[in-house]
Each structure stands twice: as structure tokens, then as C-alpha cells.
Backbone:
């Protein structure tokens, strides 16, 4: 571990916090210093289940961890409805913020969080782990090469999971007072982020939900599909996303260009921690009589020394360390990515709310 690691406080003991606590202690420049829950018993249980050392401070309220001068940064896996309140308070306490996705219920709430971060000189990043995997960098090199891949003209991304009866009745992600965006916030955040990443974070000009929306009795979205459109004439790109709590597990992205295509079947969570792969097909044509193809997809494998969530923590900690030691400004790249993702997610939600009519950005 590096000297003077970034000291993390975990605000909330959601299930995903177990994975991130492990990542914080696996990254070379960070350590878990404190854990807070709504009750001290929950914090103690979290520490015991995850084998945290006895030196980790345990708190029975979120305010206590924000007041701890030994905490440099906080990871917040709270329900989305609580993000604005606690992220703003954390920023005002000069804590750097790693916030679970979706970042807010809408872009107005997120803007309040980002304004607080900017005013207080703290780093903001959301918890989209896949962006930090070296596979993502390798894919970006390929699809960004106009001679090799051509113009990206179609993208599709899906994130689905088959929720159990208990999940669909009791999980916070189907409760309107906790995570009112449902599958749109929990799953489509990744799909939308993947489309924007493939388009170098250019916003689409039109977003439209398809009329296949499924909601529970409380009005929370369980499944939805949307189309997005960029540009004009030869630079047009069309994309589709699908997210659902009602389908078999998938986390796919397909990027098609004028010269090739890339397919990934595990882009959010790789099949294994130590490496990840994707398929690339270049110059594909049908053989004579259309009885086959002239080429097959090539599998490209990319190794990583530590899991993608630890790579995310390491990058976030590096930025915090730079602010702490050199006085430099927080990196604006990550707040901008989150805001654009939130804007598009809001547009999908708006389209759903107006009977799937198009929304223009």
C-alpha cells in the first residue's frame, strides 16, 4: 500500500458496499477507515461479515462519519432518493465523493450535488466500474480508428436480470420512495453510459421510449426500451437500449461501424476478475452463394492485475491525492460523464411519461 493512502468512509451498508469495501482495501492507494449505517448494530455486522480490521471506526449515523476528520473520501451506496441530501452534506464537509449510480432522481438534483462539489473543491465520480477496465480502453482504441472501424452508425446495449418474487416485491429498487427510477436507474444507467462512451459523449438529438414499458403497481419501471438518434446524413447514428428486471441476465453491447463490429456480452461485470474479452469482426462479407462468411469474429482478451472496481478506486484515489498534495482542481471529466448520462436517462423517463413521444436534447 502507498504511503498516506486515501482514507475512505462507507456511508450505508447496502450489498454493493461489500464489493466496494473489498476494492478499497485491494487498491494500492486507499483503505477503509470508517463505516456508517443507520444503526451501530448494522455497521458492526457489516465490518464482521467483511472481515474489516478492528481499527475501522464504526458509526450509527451518517452525520458522524461526515464529521470524522480522518475520512478523506466517502463511498455512498444509499438509495437514490437520499443522494442529494447526503452528497451535498459530504461535499460541505470537504469529503470527496464516490456516488453509486444512478446519481440522482433527475439532473436538477445532480446539478445541486455537482455545484456543492465544485464549490468545496472535492472530486466527484459515480460508481460505473466498467469504464475503468483496460478492456474498455482497448475497445475505445478500435472503435475510434476511422480507417479500421469506420463511422459508428449503430449501437445496441441491454442490461437485464430476472428478479425473484421477493425482489419484485421488497427490493429498494422497486420502491417509489427509495429508488423511484426502478430498472431505468439501476440498469439503463449502464446502457446509456455505454452508448455515450461509444459516441465520445456526444449527446443524442432525439430520445424516444418504446411502448413496451412495464411498471409495478406503485408505478416503478420494471422494464423498458428506448431508441436514440445522433446527427445528420452520413454521420447519423442510431442506438437502442433495453433494461428489465423481468428477463434472463444479460449485459451486452454491440457497436457497428461502416468497416467492422464489436460485441461484448459481459461489459458491466466481466465473466472473471483477472481478464475480459470482446469479439471484433472486420471486413465481413458473405461467401459466394451466401453459404457462409469470409471471416469469423476475433476474440481479443485483455488482462488486468486487479478487479475493475479496484481500478476505479485507484483512479479516484489518485485524483484525490493530487488535489490533496498539489492543490490542483478536481478532474471535471467524471462529473461531466455522470451529468450527460443523467440527462439522457431523464429524457427516456420523460418520453415514458408523455406516452413514448420523442424528446429532443
Residues:
Amino acid at each position: 500500500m502507498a504511503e498516506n493512502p486515501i482514507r475512505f468512509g462507507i456511508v450505508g451498508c447496502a450489498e454493493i458496499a461489500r464489493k466496494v469495501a473489498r476494492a478499497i482495501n485491494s487498491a494500492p492507494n486507499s483503505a477503509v477507515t470508517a463505516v456508517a449505517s443507520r444503526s451501530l448494530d448494522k455497521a458492526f455486522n457489516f465490518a464482521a461479515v467483511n472481515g474489516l480490521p478492528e481499527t475501522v471506526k464504526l458509526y450509527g449515523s451518517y452525520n458522524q462519519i461526515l464529521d470524522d476528520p480522518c475520512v478523506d473520501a466517502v463511498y455512498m451506496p444509499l438509495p437514490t432518493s437520499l443522494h442529494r441530501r447526503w452528497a451535498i452534506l459530504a461535499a460541505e464537509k470537504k469529503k470527496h465523493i464516490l456516488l453509486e449510480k444512478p446519481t440522482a432522481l433527475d439532473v436538477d438534483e445532480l446539478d445541486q450535488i455537482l455545484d456543492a462539489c465544485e464549490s468545496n473543491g472535492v472530486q466527484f465520480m459515480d460508481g460505473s466500474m466498467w469504464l475503468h477496465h483496460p478492456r474498455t480502453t482497448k475497445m475505445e482504441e478500435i472503435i475510434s480508428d476511422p480507417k479500421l472501424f469506420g463511422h459508428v452508425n449503430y449501437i445496441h446495449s441491454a442490461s437485464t436480470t430476472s428478479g425473484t418474487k421477493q425482489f419484485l416485491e421488497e427490493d429498494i429498487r422497486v420502491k417509489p420512495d427509495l429508488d423511484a427510477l426502478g430498472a431505468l436507474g439501476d440498469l439503463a444507467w449502464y446502457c446509456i453510459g455505454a452508448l455515450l462512451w461509444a459516441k465520445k459523449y456526444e449527446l443524442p438529438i432525439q430520445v424516444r421510449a418504446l411502448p413496451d414499458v412495464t411498471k409495478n403497481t406503485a408505478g416503478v419501471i420494471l422494464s423498458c426500451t428506448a431508441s436514440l438518434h445522433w446527427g445528420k446524413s452520413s454521420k447519423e447514428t442510431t442506438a437502442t437500449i433495453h433494461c428489465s428486471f423481468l428477463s434472463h441476465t444479460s449485459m451486452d453491447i454491440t457497436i457497428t461501424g461502416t468497416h467492422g463490429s464489436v460485441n461484448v456480452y459481459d461489459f458491466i461485470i466481466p465473466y472473471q476478475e483477472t481478464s475480459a474479452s470482446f469479439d471484433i469482426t472486420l471486413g465481413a462479407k458473405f461467401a459466394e452463394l451466401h453459404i457462409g462468411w469470409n471471416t469469423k469474429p476475433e476474440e481479443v482478451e485483455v488482462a488486468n492485475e486487479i478487479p475493475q472496481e479496484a481500478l476505479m478506486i485507484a483512479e479516484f484515489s489518485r485524483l484525490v491525492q493530487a488535489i490533496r498534495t498539489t492543490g490542483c482542481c478536481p478532474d471535471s471529466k467524471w462529473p461531466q460523464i455522470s451529468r450527460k448520462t443523467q440527462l439522457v436517462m431523464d429524457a427516456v423517463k420523460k418520453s415514458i411519461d408523455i406516452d413514448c413521444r420523442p424528446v429532443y436534447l
Summary: The mean pLDDT is 96.
